[in-house]
Amino acid sequence: MNATEGSRHRVVVVGGGAGGLELATRLGDRMKRTVDVTLVDRNRTHVWKPKLHEIAAGSMDLSAHEVDYLAQSHWHRFRYRIGEMTGLDRERREVRVAPYFDDEGREVTPQRVFGYDTLVMAVGSQSNDFGTPGVSEHAMKLESQADAQRFHARMVNACIRAHAQSGSVRPEQLKVAIIGAGATGVELAAELHRTTREVVAYGLDRVDPDKDLKVTVIEAADRVLPALPPRLSKATEALLGKLGVRTLTNAKVAEVLPDGVRLVDGRVLPAELVVWAAGVKAPDFLKDLAGLETNRINQLVVRATLQTTRDDDVFALGDCAACPWLGNGSMTVPPRAQAAHQQAMHLYAQIRRRLAGKPLKDYRYRDFGSLVSLGEYSTVGNMMGGLIGGSLMVEGLFARMMYVSLYKMHELALHGPTKVTLDTLARVLTRRTEPHVKLH
Fold this sequence. Notes:
Layout lengths: L8 E6 L3 H13 L4 E7 L3 E2 L5 H6 L9 E2 H7 L3 E4 L2 E5 L4 E4 L2 E2 L5 E3 L2 E4 L2 E4 L4 E2 L7 H4 L1 E2 L3 H20 L10 E5 L3 H19 L7 H4 L1 E5 L11 H14 L2 E3 L4 E5 L2 E4 L4 E3 L2 E4 L3 E2 L18 E2 L5 E2 L2 E6 L4 E2 L14 H19 L14 E4 L5 E6 L6 E5 H20 L1 H15 L9
Parallel strand pairs: 1-2, 1-11, 2-5, 11-24, 13-20, 14-15, 14-20, 15-16, 22-25
Antiparallel strand pairs: 3-4, 6-7, 7-10, 8-9, 12-21, 17-18, 18-19, 23-24, 26-27, 27-28
């Protein structure tokens, strides 16, 4: 399987999200003598995507949770190369990567080409605005840590602006409209309720949090968290209501305006900050990538082995892969962090089998349910599948512990038990001395 006799097998992983980074780390740790691993990503650091809403709200210290790709690659024996993938030559087995420029427009790295024997596409997903007018111009999305930091800065600036102005608060000022009541939208709404009030409490006494700070969640379906059981949707909506978060269901967005949101029924909701958190799709460049098969939301169609349907040397995992959910008819594996984690572990074993000349095994998704964090207020979800043999709705402390455990599994895959234990103890010990909300 190697490019030349006696050389190491070249594995190129494109995308340093949860699945891609876990795979590169495990390959580097355990197969460094037989595999040459290169991770390509356009960012310098990694943050677990389910944590982005905490960064946006300001309730998480980014520096304590982000992973520097260059340092990770050094300690775990793989190569990290910065840049955005722009093309694929399947015949020559080469990945093309665009030049990388710094914030001042200076070229840091030129256009480059990386050869592979096994290519793994792990580029994740992005928001799907379904062509809704005004989204790209006036709405923010939470697709990266840069997006989350940008939202947080705008939120803090909005509070400071309202405090400093001489006139009264305008109708749209300090209003946040979150479009989409899935996990991201609901989690962000709950976190914002607390953090915006703490920002104001730091001395912005001309802002009345109960009167001026308003968060509205807009959902086209008939309930919030439509992917979860109805009872949990009802409990979550009731909790949001107690926090003062307004929820609008059966409400479709017609247009995002510079100062609000227009619904299909004609209603206009004033809002200074609009977040689009409805729908997902794989990155657009995948749909024209070297003739590989994709579906309607740009996902690479893969077989149960995680190999793409038209090229056995190209694999895909995580949100960018349309992977069959064996045992569930025509359904595909849902785009969840737990799926990316499972697929990374499975693909590590697949690569070992490839090098040994053994047949590949099918990936079988184990659904452990869904958990949604509502900050310090609660956590809700359903546990199911192989974990308990059935389905169980969970809330409160137990659900919170399960939610935290998912993140710990990711950290363990990247850093191992010793570092994770020490880092966790350090966070617990320093938490009481740090401000609860980050203002930068």
